[in-house]
Each structure stands twice: as structure tokens, then as C-alpha cells.
Specification:
Layout lengths: L1 H9 L1 E14 L7 E13 L4 E11 L2 E4 L2 E3 L2 E13 L3 E10 L1 E3 L9 E11 L4 E10 L11 E11 L1
């Protein structure tokens, strides 16, 4: 167990990340809103090709139903990505996420969000990285709507 633990920790990387993007709710007549995210992750490399990376993000999502009504909930988003490394710099990933709601702009019918995420990132030799990811929500955003979150984010970060 000790030898296995040492081997895994030698192939793990901690990362801090932040970014901006756009989000909308499907099946609802509304405009996309800009959102932000900030968080951290820890990738455990299984081998040269595959890494498992749980992350934790504080992120905003939502939609603009009318010019006077914008819904901007804040979530604690927890994705677990399976990353496929293409050489030393590129990684493509996919995996599920769950996002309990923290603040919902006084709309008491909001649900915990969950869904699927796909993404890509380019890591520089210095540890700096640039990435893009898309979230596809799988459950209704509120108890009174069939709409689901759909978001696109651009991130930058640093791996230690």
C-alpha cells in the first residue's frame, strides 16, 4: 500500500483554475449570460495516457429571460474528469459533474445541477495552462421548468 501510494502521489498534480464563459438554459426563451468560475483540481495519473481529475469550482450560471429578469445562480460544481493525454501538452477530458446550488437569486425552486462535461487543455512547460470546457446539464434547472444548463467556459490555470 505504501509503495502504491508513493507511486500515485509522484504522478499527481494540483492545479488552480479560473475562467469566464457563457451559459444559457435550454427550452427557455432567453439569452445567454456571462459567467465566471474559480476553483482547484488534483489530477492523478493512472499511466502516461490517462489521468483522473476531481475538481471543485465556485461557478455562476443562469440565463436572461428578459432585459429586466436575469437569473444568476451560484453553484459549488464538482466535476470528475477522465483525461486522455496526447503528448506532453494536450489533454482531452470527459466526465460527470454535480453542482449543489449555493445562491439562487431568491428563486426557491432551483434544483441541484448535474450533467456531463467535456473539455480540452494545453499545458505549457512552465505549469501555466489554457483550457476550454462545455457543461451539458441533465436535470431541470427549476421545479417549474424543463430547461437544462448549457455552458461554455474558457479557463486559465497553473499546475504545481
Amino acid at each position: 500500500m505504501f509503495v502504491l501510494g508513493c507511486g500515485i502521489s509522484a504522478n499527481a498534480q494540483f492545479a488552480i483554475k479560473g475562467g469566464l464563459g457563457a451559459c444559457n438554459v435550454t427550452d427557455v426563451e432567453g439569452d445567454a449570460t456571462f459567467h465566471w468560475k474559480i476553483g482547484a483540481g488534483y489530477e492523478i495519473r493512472v499511466n502516461e495516457l490517462i489521468g483522473i481529475e476531481p475538481n471543485v469550482f465556485l461557478t455562476g450560471k443562469g440565463t436572461e429571460w428578459t432585459k429586466d429578469l436575469t437569473w444568476s445562480p451560484i453553484y459549488l460544481e464538482i466535476p470528475v474528469m477522465c483525461n486522455f493525454h496526447l503528448g506532453d501538452h494536450w489533454a482531452l477530458g470527459a466526465g460527470p459533474y454535480v453542482a449543489p446550488i449555493i445562491s439562487d437569486d431568491d428563486i426557491d425552486t432551483a434544483n441541484t445541477d448535474y450533467g456531463l462535461r467535456i473539455g480540452a487543455r494545453y499545458g505549457f512547460d512552465s505549469g501555466f495552462e489554457l483550457g476550454v470546457d462545455t457543461d451539458f446539464g441533465l436535470n431541470d434547472v427549476t421545479k417549474h421548468s424543463d430547461g437544462k444548463h448549457l455552458s461554455l467556459s474558457f479557463t486559465c490555470g497553473y499546475r504545481f
